[in-house]
Amino acid sequence: MTAHSTTLKVGEKVVDLPVREGTIGPAVVDIGKLYAQTGMFTYDPGFTSTAACESKITYIDGDEGVLLHRGYPIEQLAEHGDFLETCYLLLYGELPTPAQKSDFDYRITRHTMVHEQMMRFFQAFRRDAHPMAVMVASVGALSAFYHDSTDISDPHQRMVASMRMIAKMPTLAAMAYKYSIGQPFIYPKNDLDYSSNFLNMCFAVPCEEYKVNPVLSRALDRIFILHADHEQNASTSTVRLAGSSGANPFACIAAGIACLWGPAHGGANEAALTMLREIGSVDNIPKYIAKAKDKNDPFRLMGFGHRVYKNYDPRAKIMQKTCHEVLNELGIKDDPLLDIAMELERIALSDDYFIEKKLYPNIDFYSGITLKAMGFPTEMFTVLFALARTVGWIAQWREMISDPAQKIGRPRQLYTGAPQRDYVPMAQRR
Ligand code: SDX
């Protein structure tokens, strides 16, 4: 990490600020001492120019449409590996050897069951509860069932909690789905791989044998890889901030799930499909493009745009290819929503507004169509995003916890409220 410095003139004062270079990507100006030296804060409410931490896990180049996990391009990981290999890479920093991979698969597989009393926990929900509400609650509740892995100062307990969450998220997600449709829960099966096990827990019923379609299972596994981690996005930053107070890992991941739920973030896959349904036909697209461009209309094209990618989201390209694979495998020749999506993308990418603002389809644009074709209801789309992103949240949380420089996150503010004033007794108020 090469370091040099830059100067900043604040009023009559000139301060020296250290500059640190990363391996690749933008350098950073360390402003840690700025307030002490100048009495001023920096101001960047959406963190558009702020690096909140140092990390070795994921690198994104928004202009070039590059996404690397521990240096490996997402295209290669999605093409050649499986989701648990990406999990190992994110957690440990290197691709696993064959022995390490089979040990990791074994450990995850044998943590997939949840405490039997979680069944009673689920029964407290209304059947029509949004599954993301169920996931926020049940992941947070894991800290009530697994006290033996909540001491974050113990590396062993941190690893056990990590394994438990990666392993149990599919089980909890499938339980949320089954509960919402009034079907019995299906237990995990240790002879199935991670994604096949999830499909079985979602779509099998006790009355008959369920055969997992290997093409769909491979496609879902790839979708999980695409969603595994994404640098310091809103939900990952939420997990880091929650973790900086020393909160237990289950509570931190529950906080991440809550943040991901928002339609500007992970909730966009559900919102994108709802939008396509609302558009209804290719003929209505111009009306919605006009709404998206109208400054006075809050409508946005869900699944379009990104804070970092000002070029095509590399994951969206793989997502689109996977979408076509799944539709072909299922013999879905003309999905009207896919027709609308493809025409919407074609028109938007040739429209000056979207070109000038560098708005491209992001990962959420095609994922909804794919998941709907696989049989998942719209409300489950963000649950699957949370399932996959759990490993990224955990890897980032572990990196933060083991950083010797780590301290509680506590941003300041620009105060524009009332100056100090005295209390007015009720009798004198008019
Ligand atoms: C994810 O951060 C991550 O890495 C997230 C994620 C991950 O893996 O963790 O990649 C997952 O959340 C993907 C994004 C999913 N969200 C959506 O698809 C929702 C629709 N997109 C927008 O809400 C928006 O693009 C954001 C939230 C994604 C990004 O917003 P920014 O970076 O704050 O950009 P902005 O809102 O300042 O927009 C810049 C301009 C604005 O116009 P001006 O005010 O400059 O005139 O572009 C316009 C916006 O109005 N704009 C859009 C638009 N997105 C931005 N106009 C129409 N449709 C859109 N989708």
Please, could you describe this protein's structure?
This protein is mainly alpha-helical and 430 residues long. Helix content is 50%, strand content 7%. It contains 18 helices and six strands. It has helices at residues 34-38, 74-80, 83-92, 98-109, 118-123, 131-145, 155-181, 194-203, 214-226, 234-244, 249-260, 268-279, 285-293, 314-329, 336-349, 352-356, 363-374, 381-401; strands at residues 3-10, 13-20, 28-29, 58-61, 66-69, 72-73. The strands form two sheets. Strands 1-2-3 form a three-stranded antiparallel beta sheet. A hairpin with a 2-residue loop joins strand 5 and strand 6 (72-73). Helix 10 runs antiparallel to helix 11 (249-260). The chain binds s-citryldethia Coenzyme A (SDX). S-citryldethia Coenzyme A is lined by residues 46, 230, 233, 264-266, 268, 292, 300-308, 357, 359, 362-364.
Which key terms come to mind for this protein?
6 strands, 7% strand, 430 residues, three-stranded antiparallel beta sheet, mainly alpha, binds s-citryldethia Coenzyme A
Anisotropy-based shape: globular
Spatial arrangement of strands, main beta sheet: 1-2-3
Strand content: 5-15%
Number of helices: 18
Please give the alpha-carbon distance between the first and last residues. Answer: 63 Å
Which structural category fits the helices and strands?
mainly alpha
Can you give the helix content as a percent range?
40-55%
Order of helices and strands: EEEHEEEHHHHHHHHHHHHHHHHH
Largest sheet: 3 strands, antiparallel
What is the CA-based Rg, rounded?
23 Å
Ligand catalogue: s-citryldethia Coenzyme A
| Low-confidence sequence ranges | none
Give the averaged pLDDT, no decimals: 95
Number of strands: 6
